[in-house]
Amino acid sequence: MRFASSHFLYFLVALPFIYLGFLLSHIRRRRVLRKLGNLETLNQFSKRELLSSYRVEGFFATASICFFIIALARPQAGIRLESVKIKGSDVYIAIDLSQSMKAEDIKPNRLERAKIDARELIHSLHGDRVGLILFAGDAFVQCPLTTDYDAILSLINTIDPNSTVTAGTSLAAPMKVALKSLKPEEEIYALLLLLTDGEDTVGEIEKPVKELKRRGIKVFTIGIGKKEGVPIPLFDQNGNRVGYKKDKHGKIIITTLDEETLRWIAETTGGFYFRAGETFDEVKRFKSTLDNLMKREFEMKKFTVYEERYQVPLVIGLIFLGAFILRTNRVQRRIA
């Protein structure tokens, strides 16, 4: 047993005062009757003992109100299973964990901004399955497609650049992983979202892009960073900055946002490119596009629903109300 609107139960504390009000009303009536004569003589005409009658009427009225309050609180008991059809897309979010994502040309840094965008997107989803791919020099599925958004958010919060072991950046790697992970019947409703600065140190992206296009899997890209270029900071185990990343010649490496590559990937596969800006609107624009894509019924969920039982206290309350009305009418006829 549970109550769907349990806040109405607080009104039950007023019941003793309501019943007390009936008794006080009787006391006032009794004082008036005493002015008319002896109560024992009046009782002979009323054919009842006045105090006990008011107690009964007060009980009927109070009980009626009590059960009406319980009915308003919507008691529920038992369960039933409901089939719910869910429509949505399959969205794989791929987050770049390469060293260049530590760059701070966008605050707090590129990787943290990617995590912020990923979390904002997941918070806005409803009915879509979402999976998580992490990549740098290679890629792996951190979480397969699921509707358990809390689990995905928990994994995103634990991401750090040391989650991968292969150095470099391969934009082809997350695309290949997505191609392997998606089933043929899911492809037309699936898409891949790349959160990256677009720098690719491996190359060979043309083949997976063409395969994605052939299979109808759209790729959307969000470019994180600035085209001007900034150095890549290095930190010790305590998180203190110790310098900047350098090449083998000792020259500081400058990392830039490669918008051309990201735009080409998106446009070739039928997706769109968005740039992470100061207004944080890139996720909203992507979500708007996602809402207009073709959806499929991909899951039948069973929800446990409690059966409403408000009818029982409502009927009991009406019975007590009817008894109160009948009792009051009968008393009025006897006194008249």
Describe it for me?
The protein has helices at 15-36, 39-46, 50-72, 110-124, 149-157, 172-181, 206-214, 259-269, 282-291, 311-335, and strands at residues 2-3, 75-88, 90-96, 129-135, 139-146, 190-196, 218-223, 230-231, 233-235, 241-244, 254-255, 273-275, 296-308. The protein has 336 residues and is an alpha/beta fold. The protein folds into two domains: 2-74 and 310-335, no CATH class; 85-300, Rossmann fold (3-Layer(aba) Sandwich). It has a six-stranded mixed sheet, with helices on both faces. Strands 1-2-13 form a three-stranded antiparallel sheet, with helices on one face. Strands 8-11 form a two-stranded antiparallel ribbon. Strand 3 (90-96), helix 4 and strand 4 (129-135) form a beta-alpha-beta unit. Helix 4 (110-124) runs parallel beside helix 9. The radius of gyration is 36 Å and the shape is elongated. The model is unreliable at 331-336 (pLDDT under 50).
